[in-house]
Structure prediction request, 346 residues.
Amino acid sequence: MSSDDECISPLKRKKGVSNSDKYKRNIIKQAKIEGKKHTNWIGKIVATKNDPSLILKECCSKKCLKDIQQEKLENTMKMFYEMHSKNEQDLHLQRTIEIKEITRKRKRIETEEGKEKPKSKSVQYFLIVDGQRIQVCKKAFINVYNISNKKIRRLVDLLENNITPVDMRGKNISANTMPYEYCQKIHEHILSFPTKDTHYTTRLKNYLNPKLNVKTMHTMFLEKYPELEGKIKYQYYWEYFKNNFSLSFGAPVKDACSKCEELNTKIMSKDLNDVAKRVAAAELLVHKRRSKKFYNNIKKTIEISQQNKKVLGLCFDFMAVVDLPKIPVQEVYYYRQLSVNTFGIH
Prediction:
């Protein structure tokens, strides 16, 4: 390997692309289906199963495979491990198994523990070779497909109950799944906070109080539900907030003050000296104090008008200028003569 190859870093996963075929669980599943050598979940190496050299024609005392060509047995194994899913493999095996009634009942042998359990069914196994079903013994059947006795027992039990085999691996609910009741409490708690709509914007968006943050909300949640402390951690609360809500903190900067923008531009300018910047910063500080005093008066007026019904608080707002007629035609746009001044009192 050259030095250039060593410097090449692996490609990063694109955002929104899961690459599920590279998951460890899916790699192990696919290796089992194809009968390839792999390492299982406990770190144990599982040997190859789709090796034709593992087929032994004299695997049983009845010599069931003696009259079948080795090449045809290898093709049967190859066909089995080329199937796309475990469900296809199980269904194929189940179709080659038949359950018959006992035609000749024999006396059970008595042991020290008691009589042996009588045989309840007779199971026959077949290999499909050149479109023909050839009956073989269980040992030869397992040898050709290189499968375990446990799998055969499962398929026989399902066949006896007329149940089609279904792969249930990975279908159970994870033990780490958060209960629905906990998620419902988180959802209701987030909805309990008041929000404000956007002002003068085309896209509706809600904003929470700028003094809040997700950490504070999580702390308040645990104060309300102390029994969930240790169960609902901040990371989970934050992910639930991010994935289920489109909320922001604060408010969008719309109708920005021209004085603030002018002074901020001077402070950030590279052409002005330090003295001019300090003067602009002082003016901005005084301007913000005046605006704060103004908004405090508005807030005070609102509180007084809410407490005393004899006091009426009015707010005059020059909202927008709308040009008429509002038609998306170029010629009409330049012929506009009428402007509507929207003035609100609330």
